[in-house]
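Most newcomers find our protein records easier to grasp once they have seen one. A record pairs a protein's sequence with a compact description of its fold. An example says more than a description, so a record of this kind follows:
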Amino acid sequence: MEDIIFITIAAVISGAETWNAIADYGKAKLSWLRQYLQLPNGIPSHDTFNRFFSALDPQAFEQAFLSWVKAVVELTAGAVINIDGKTLCGSKGSKRAVHIISAWSSANQLSLGQIKVDEKSNEITAIPRLLEVLALKGCIVTIDAMGCQRDIAEKIISKEADYILAVKGNQGSLEENVKDTVRFIQPCSQWIEEDFGHGRLEKRTCSVYQDLSLIENASAWKSLFAVIKIDSYRYMKCTGKEEKDTRYYITSSHASAEKLGKSVRSHWGIENELHYQLDVSFHEDDSRKREGYAAQNFSLVNRIALSLIKNENSTKSSVKRKRLQAGWDNDYLLKILTN
């Protein structure tokens, strides 16, 4: 088992994306692999890799991953954890495509855990299960509107963490109450961030409202402390085009407007640094692994590989270039694996 998992992770870091490619990688690197593995029967066939990951208990595999994460990273107080879902489009066969909920730390460039959404369920029931296995004490957890649920807010507080939950129309009158709050009540604090570069001007304003008198049944949201409004403005110099956007959030955090604004913005990290990389650099959506637990387990292998690659900081190369270099240079691959 250890040999198969090690070969797979090393192969995926080096650019392999299919069972055949993993087996071919193992054969090409046999002499190097024998320095670290026993391999009494040589390199397994591509069918063996497929059967192994199709049958491997994903919960046990994810638990081993969580143990590794806890051993290599210690989240500091105030660390922001982003939680979001991603569908493995290529896994759709006769059944629904596999949908994975992931937790991501932008500061650590590390996937902290994942859980599969049950076939007849949705993110609302899966998120609390993921929260249950994560060590979140002192952290701020950000979730999009799907996770704006009272039970999820209560679960985060029970883990001694704070929440920032996006508010849209899926929570009855909450969005209307929040909009009334920002319309009729003055913010208690604000923070403005401006960016210039790449031919555009961007301005983001984070306004925090601690007066919750216009929020109906505010006490139903565990430890609710404030409403957040994010106003975004973008001006494209070359075209003169302007874009404006306003988003709303609720939070239990007592942090400053600057910290809250940066925490909200960091939520895009799970899209740009995790999901985008999995699709563009690892071609996860093109994968046709559908047998047994193969798609779910290989998704975790991809996240392990990406986390290891991103935490190798001796070069500022892209993820794609690092994978190529790892495939060519055994010493660089070892640096990634032992980082």
Q: What stands out?
A: The chain is about 40% helix and 20% strand. The mean pLDDT is 90. The beta strands are 80-88, 98-105, 110-116, 140-143, 162-166, 189-197, 200-209, 226-236, 242-251.
